[in-house]
Structures are given as structure tokens and as C-alpha cells.
């Protein structure tokens, strides 16, 4: 018998359990301060795996797991961060508003997240310098070039400015595509538009499991020479990856 996607009676209890885990993260990072970017990335990976286990979420990987470089991923939900962090120790770039989220913003700071005000040209230039420094240290960085989340069915306009950092330090640009199963599950997980955090978190906790979550990594970096070209090439690769993901879903549905 197939399990229901969500169960309302358990949603609030699971949400409290999730916040208990986040509080545990805060305590651990307070008792044992994280000093280097590598320590922060590995700490994030450990906790991402624990939280995904709690959410009964298994992640399938396609392609070669990048050991370093600039990972350019599509953006559907804050769950994207957990999914990618669980696969490889990495540093994330996030919009400045995330810093203001209760507890989560503080944990993001301790995880080494680089916050970016996308309305400021100066902020983008400063972020590029910081990202380049992290990349040169051998640490991978995840950027969501669309700049915001979507329902996962289209590709939004690309924010090309941050593609300058990997070009400056000659690090590979690795297009990456995240998929959350069928349309019903994706609708539950997607966080976009005028949604607010707490109601969406409660909705997420009502999911009994997250099935068929997958991440596609391009095997090699894209051979771009300037940031606008890099953004356009990334879009083309994403389109191919999105079509591949849809083909896999149709095969699963037909089986």
C-alpha cells in the first residue's frame, strides 16, 4: 500500500523536532567554534545529512561529484541547500534576507554562508572577490544564479555577475540541476512567490518522505571566457538536464 504524501497530525510535532535539531546545531557551533571554511563546510554536511535522514529524504546523484569549483545550481527551495550540502562539503552564497531568518540566519552565518545584496553593484564586486578567495583555497562554492526560487518548471533569468569569480581564478564552472520527484511532491517542496517561511515549513513537515530527489552534475566545467557567456552556457546545460530529469520521471511513472 502506497504511503500518503503527508499526514497533518504529525506536522507540528515534526516541526518542533526540526527546531530541536537546529538548536542542537547552534549549541554545537557555540561550544566548538568553526574557524576555517573547510570546517564550516564539513559541519554543514554532517548536519545536512542528519536533517535529510529525519525528513526521510534520499538523494540520487548523477554525474561526477565535484571536489572543488563553482557549482551553479537551479533554485526551488531552501531544501536545495540541504540536498547539495549533504553530497559535498561546500560554501553557499545566499541572498541577504536569509540572514534575518530566526535562528536559521545565525546558523547560516556559522556555516560560512556568503550573503549578497543583489541590488548593489558594489556588493556583487565584493562578493566576487570573496568567492574567488574561497575557490582559490580549494573549497567549492554553490551559487544559485537565478537569484531567487521558482516552481522548478522553468529557468528564470540568470544573474551573470557572480560568474566572474571562477573566471578570475580559473576554477571550473559546474552546472547542476536539482529535481524533486513528480509534480505533486515538487509543489509541496517548492518555496517561491509570496510564500512565507513558517507555514511552508509546517507543510514540509507533513511530508512523510521525499522520494526521487536527484541532483545532476555536469561532468566537466563549461568553457566560457566571460561571465555573460558563462551564464548563457549554464542555461543551455540546465535545459538539457531538465529534459533528462523529465524523461527519467516518465520512465519511472511508466514502470
Secondary-structure blueprint:
Blueprint: H1 8-31, H2 37-54, E1 57-62, E2 70-73, H3 79-87, E3 90-95, H4 104-110, E4 114-116, H5 121-136, E5 140-143, H6 164-168, E6 173-180, H7 183-189, H8 197-205, E7 210-217, H9 227-254
Parallel strand pairs: 1-7, 2-5, 2-6, 3-4, 3-5
Antiparallel strand pairs: 6-7
Helix pairs in contact: 1-4, 1-8, 2-3
Folded structure, characterized:
The chain is α/β, with parallel strands linked by helices. About 50% of the residues lie in helices and about 15% in strands. The chain is built from 9 helices and 7 strands. A 7-stranded mixed β-sheet has the order 1-7-6-2-5-3-4, sandwiched between helices. The longest helix is centred in the C-terminal third of the chain and has 28 residues, at about 225-255. The protein is globular. Residues about 1-10 have low confidence and may be disordered.
Features:
255 residues; 9 helices; 7 strands
Short note summarizing the structure:
By secondary structure, the protein is α/β, with parallel strands linked by helices.
Amino acid at each position: 500500500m502506497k504511503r500518503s504524501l503527508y499526514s497533518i497530525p504529525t506536522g507540528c510535532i515534526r516541526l518542533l523536532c526540526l527546531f530541536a535539531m537546529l538548536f542542537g546545531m547552534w549549541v554545537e557551533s557555540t561550544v566548538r567554534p568553526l574557524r576555517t571554511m573547510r570546517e564550516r563546510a564539513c559541519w554543514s554536511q554532517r548536519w545536512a545529512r542528519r536533517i535529510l535522514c529525519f525528513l526521510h529524504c534520499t538523494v540520487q546523484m548523477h554525474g561526477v561529484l565535484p571536489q572543488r569549483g563553482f557549482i551553479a545550481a537551479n533554485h526551488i527551495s531552501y531544501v536545495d541547500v540541504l540536498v547539495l550540502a549533504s553530497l559535498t562539503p561546500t560554501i553557499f552564497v545566499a541572498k541577504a534576507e536569509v540572514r534575518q531568518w530566526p535562528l536559521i540566519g545565525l546558523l547560516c552565518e556559522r556555516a560560512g554562508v556568503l550573503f549578497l545584496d543583489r541590488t548593489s553593484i558594489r556588493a556583487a564586486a565584493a562578493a566576487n572577490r570573496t568567492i574567488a578567495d574561497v575557490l582559490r583555497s580549494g573549497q567549492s562554492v554553490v551559487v544559485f544564479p537565478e537569484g531567487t526560487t521558482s516552481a522548478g518548471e522553468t529557468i528564470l533569468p540568470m544573474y551573470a555577475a557572480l560568474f566572474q569569480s571562477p573566471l578570475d581564478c580559473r576554477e571550473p564552472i559546474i552546472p547542476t540541476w536539482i529535481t524533486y520527484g513528480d509534480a505533486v511532491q515538487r509543489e509541496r517542496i517548492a518555496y517561491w512567490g509570496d510564500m512565507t517561511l513558517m507555514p511552508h515549513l509546517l507543510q514540509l513537515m507533513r511530508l512523510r518522505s521525499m522520494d526521487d530527489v536527484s541532483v545532476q552534475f555536469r561532468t566537466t566545467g563549461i568553457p566560457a571566457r566571460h561571465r555573460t557567456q558563462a551564464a548563457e552556457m549554464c542555461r543551455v546545460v540546465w535545459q538539457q538536464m531538465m529534459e533528462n530529469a523529465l524523461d527519467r520521471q516518465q520512465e519511472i511513472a511508466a514502470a
